[in-house]
Amino acid sequence: MATMVLPREDKLTQDEIVLGTKAVIQGLETLRGEHRALLAPLTSLEASDAEPGSQERCLLLRRSLEAIELGLGEAQVILALSSHLGAVESEKQKLRAQVRRLVQENQWLREELAGTQQKLQHSEQAVAQLEEEKQHLLFMSQIRKLDEDTSPNEEKGDVPKDSLDDLFPNEDEQSPAPSPGGGDVAAQHGGYEIPARLRTLHNLVIQYASQGRYEVAVPLCKQALEDLEKTSGHDHPDVATMLNILALVYRDQNKYKEAAHLLNDALAIREKTLGKDHPAVAATLNNLAVLYGKRGKYKEAEPLCKRALEIREKVLGKFHPDVAKQLSNLALLCQNQGKAEEVEYYYRRALEIYSTRLGPDDPNVAKTKNNLASCYLKQGKYQDAETLYKEILTRAHEKEFGSVNGDNKPIWMHAEEREESKDKHRDSALYGEYGSWYKACKVDSPTVNTTLRSLGALYRRQGKLEAAHTLEDCASRNRKQDEAGQFPQLPQQECGRASPAWRDRSF
């Protein structure tokens, strides 16, 4: 008979329990075999009643066998339970491994989510900034549309894209031209007066160049230059004047290298024969600045323009209209370099000179105010720009209709009143009055159309759509009249745009 396993006081492990159970099963199976061997002969004796007490022994053996069978069954259950617990533990370990993996993946996903959220935040900020820039560019594009008006001749194709007129503001157009033989010309040129034949030749060359007939303009200039050099020699002021004229033609043909060579030659002649502080030297310096400006070399052009300004201030005085023109040229160069403060300073000086010397009704005053307002727009000074636009429209109104009062208001006041009362009434009966007002003012103020569109764009940016529509409708009606030939087109320079659309015919 197998030895009985006594219980231990210390806690058994699962493996020890399994091993003990298997030992018990072996013992019980052995005991069961011995009981069956004893029971077999007793069963035959029990049937014959040959031996007394055999029945009682058989009964005891049968009960012992039942107990052994019960113990074997319980042991089998213990083994099955142990196997099941092992499988559960194995599955538990697998689940723990999966949990650890999921925790790691969760941590990684959290990090990825945090990084993605940060990128999204940066993207939203970039989108907001781009949207703001888009709104600003849309606003500025509305301003630049004001510069798209072309002259009637240009619309017919008579003038090439980059003609001689696409340079700094034309001095001949901005102020009354003195007579060729007058004393004013000699005074402004420091005793040197440009001969009348060269002035006539200059005008003729400009006419040919504006028609694109360079095959006529260039030989004409070269022949005149050759004749002057034969009669007067190379180092003569008239030769320098002719070199300036030919340089203008080359510049109009985009032959910048040839034009620069001629202008530098003319500058050397004029400095040698007339002196470094002569107004003619300032004109040549200005032409060189224009040339560099058309090539996008604004930094090289700026010192030339500043020197021309210094000469004109020294010779003509700081409050001469020609000084104001040079200040406007310098402002354009600085504007193309993004020097907003200097642009504002030069335009303010030019405006002061024009207002003081030529009076508030001179066209240059309104043009310079428009240029200064454009500068304010680029700096974000919308209130200052709005004030200048209103001054231009108010002055034009007063010039045509008299002082402003309750019954005599400029167009911008009507526009703001329509904005304030847009929800009360939406009749368009007043547009006819606006159109007649603008038609009357346009005769004496060619900058009114530009100002109407600029102020309309500014109103639109401020959300004053009804006021903007009022001004734009008035401007568009007059534009149609311009296209029909009733009124002259506006010069492109009035808006003071940053692109190098300058004019100059000084020579």
UniProtKB/TrEMBL annotation:
One GO molecular function term of this record is: kinesin binding
Among its keywords, does the record have Transmembrane helix?
no
Question: What GO biological process terms does the UniProt entry carry, in alphabetical order?
Answer: microtubule-based movement
Q: Name one Pfam family in it.
A: TPR_12
UniProt GO cellular component terms: cytoplasm; kinesin complex; microtubule
SUPFAM superfamilies hit by this protein: TPR-like
Biased segments, Basic and acidic residues type = 145-164
Q: Which InterPro entries match?
A: Kinesin_light (IPR002151), Kinesin_light_repeat (IPR015792), TPR-like_helical_dom_sf (IPR011990), TPR_rpt (IPR019734)
Tell me if Repeat is a UniProt keyword of this record.
Answer: yes
Q: Which UniProt keywords apply?
A: Coiled coil, Cytoplasm, Cytoskeleton, Microtubule, Motor protein, Repeat, TPR repeat
* Entry coiled-coil feature ranges: 85-133
Q: Where is this region: Disordered?
A: 145-189, 477-507
> Where would you find this protein in the cell?
Cytoplasm, Cytoskeleton
Q: Which family does it belong to?
A: Belongs to the kinesin light chain family.
Its quaternary organisation is: Oligomeric complex composed of two heavy chains and two light chains.
Which PANTHER family does the record match to this protein? KINESIN LIGHT CHAIN (PTHR45783), KINESIN LIGHT CHAIN 2 (PTHR45783:SF2)
Q: What is this protein called?
A: Kinesin light chain
